[in-house]
Amino acid sequence: MLALRKRYDVFGRGDLEFLHPENRRVLAYLRSDEERSVLIVANLSRFAQYVELDLSRFRGSAPVELFARRTSRRSATCPTC
């Protein structure tokens, strides 16, 4: 986690916006700067949790999983996202 934070300045210097999912066991927020936006989703439970987030403003963007450095495919349940 520390190496990932050092690699992307947005984690420490970007704008911070908390999202408010209905599931209170999930913490979700965005860090943004001029170059990128990063979505952080943390499961605060010891069990798997379901969460829905409104990310419609990022429609057309390709999400990249930062740990694996790979682009994710679009969701099968949201073909326009």
Protein architecture, described:
By secondary structure, the protein is α+β, with helices and mostly antiparallel strands. The chain has one domain. It has two helices and five strands. It has helices spanning 2-7, 10-13; strands at residues 15-18, 26-32, 37-43, 64-65, 70-71. The strands form two sheets. A three-stranded antiparallel β-sheet has the order 1-2-3. A two-stranded antiparallel sheet has the order 4-5. Strand 2 (26-32) and strand 3 (37-43) form a beta hairpin. The longest helix has 6 residues, at 2-7. It starts with a helix and ends in a 10-residue tail after the last strand.
For the record, the count of structural domains works out to 1
Strand fraction equals: 25-35%
Give me the secondary-structure category: alpha+beta
Q: Over the alpha carbons, how many angstroms does the gyration radius reach?
A: 13 Å
The number of strands is: 5
The helix fraction, in percent, is 10-25%
Low-pLDDT segments, ≥5 res: 75-81
Which geometry do the CA atoms define?
globular
Strand arrangement, major sheet? 1-2-3
Note the total helix count. 2
Can you summarize the main beta sheet? 3 strands, antiparallel
